[in-house]
Amino acid sequence: MTPKRDYARLFDLTGRKAIVTGGSRGIGRALAEALAAQGADVAIVVRSSLALAEALAATLNAGGGDSFAVQADVSKPDDVARVAAEVERRWGRADILVNNAGIIHPGPAEDFPLDLWRDTMAVNVEGVLLMSQAIGAMMIRQKAGSIVNVGSMSGRIVNWPFRHAAYNVSKAAVHMLTKCLATEWAEHGVRVNAIAPGYILTELTEEVLRENPEVVKNHWAAGAVQNRIGTVDELAGAVVYLASDAASFTTGEIHTVDGGLTLR
Ligand code: NAD
């Protein structure tokens, strides 16, 4: 029987133009690689490690393609405007934006320094807003586009025993911003979703694993019904799905990928 629709191409991103922030390492790197594997060209936005991002772009372009690296701090409006201008100049369009860049400043709430609170919000919340405004303007003009924000389980639950209220509040804000933008931009054909990862092994969390293996075993892994932490590869499918036409009727969704950590 001949299928009525070409379902095999639902996740195909051939020729799509994608921007991934914080894409030189960790989760962002895996997401950039996954989008490229589905056929997208990727602009890898990095704050400091330009050489690393350029090497990744060269790898992604090995079989052909037009991925590139660009240095920018997502919390700085001028930097963000420069990224959008470069995307416009080079590609003339933007189909996918993954707002992955994020930071965490741990510390108890009672004497948490205001400058660290503000730094957390500047990168994790304002960075998502600024990038979405700059790249979203192109998507609104095109009447098409998909934004995927990297939120966190920490936007839904309070992690324990480590305390990091600023981070948790920032990720809850990312989730709500996702829903607000999805609502406002649906009429322009732009979808906005988020993933909410659980504990994932990256450079960020490796240090904790090294210094506090018991916390990782007894709280992070044991907290998930699957009794383990996740890998960056386990986030790739969710982001490819949300970025692709397979998710054409999905917007404002916070897609949890946490091994069941937030179930209990
Ligand atoms: P990471 O520290 O390895 O990567 C973060 C990346 O963001 C780095 O490349 C960093 O340079 C970049 N970045 C930070 N501030 C920036 C800025 N101002 N401008 C541009 N780039 C900036 O961390 P990761 O574990 O890969 O985390 C990636 C995202 O996933 C973050 O938003 C994080 O909050 C989120 N997350 C991580 C976990 C986890 O367990 N690792 C769980 C849930 C959510």
UniProtKB/TrEMBL annotation:
GO molecular function, one term: oxidoreductase activity, acting on the CH-OH group of donors, NAD or NADP as acceptor
Gene3D superfamilies, sorted: NAD(P)-binding Rossmann-like Domain
Record InterPro entries: KR_dom, NAD(P)-bd_dom_sf, Sc_DH/Rdtase_CS, SDR_fam
Pfam families cross-referenced by the UniProt entry: adh_short_C2
The UniProt record lists the keyword Translocase: no
Keywords for the protein's UniProt record, in alphabetical order: Oxidoreductase
Domain Ketoreductase intervals: 16-198
Domain of life: Bacteria
GO biological process, one term: carbohydrate metabolic process
Recorded family membership: Belongs to the short-chain dehydrogenases/reductases (SDR) family.
Protein name (Swiss-Prot/TrEMBL): NAD(P)-dependent dehydrogenase (Short-subunit alcohol dehydrogenase family)
Source organism of this protein record: Aureimonas pseudogalii
